[in-house]
Design goal:
Elements lengths: L1 H12 L3 E6 L4 H5 L10 H12 L4 E7 L5 H10 L4 E5 L4 E2 L2 E2 L5 H9 L3 E5 L5 H8 L5 E2 L4 H4 L3 H16 L29 H8 L3 H7 L1
Amino acid sequence: LKPLMEVAPVIRAHGGVLEIDAHCRQPEMMARGAGQALLAKPHVLAEWISRLKGTGVMVSLKMRANVVDEVRLACALERVGLDIVHLDCMGAPVDRGYAPTDLAPLKRVRNATSLLIIGNNGVVDYESAKRMLSRGADMVSVARALITSPAVVSEISTRLVQMEKKYGWYNMPSHICAGGDIRGLTFCCAPVKDCAIQPVLKELGISALEFMQLK
């Protein structure tokens, strides 16, 4: 915590973001209790974030999905001041490595928090970025795709600007029935039949009549 507290005012003065690495899983880092090992110490993360927010700096946490309960951790850290969760949507472990990008954890965190969410993993072009944005991400980060396609970030950015101009919503959600987060209720019709909207309304504590009146 000490070096983080020392650098926090510098980052704040330059308008930057201090990102805590609870993501890297190299053995030498895990052995020191750093990187992904921090996910097993939510009380430590909560203390760090609370203290860092006292400096006025914006704080982000980078973490990997399918390691701990992402929603529980994100909600707990939001309560102590976390601003951003940078979520690596890596799939759950399987026999031969890991499953493809898993957007379900991203959607769950979006539905449960007001955090700014940066989606990560498998963003290689506009379409893959759009899939993350439509599940609740506010931003996306790009990694390996830059090696083979240095222009990928500007290409994604240009398309998102065009989308914003056309629809007024650069990261608009997919419909609820197409897997979108709860923002997708914007597009839903009145719940007059058995469809995907029903369990969402139940979870939110909104009756069918209340939803129709809101619409």
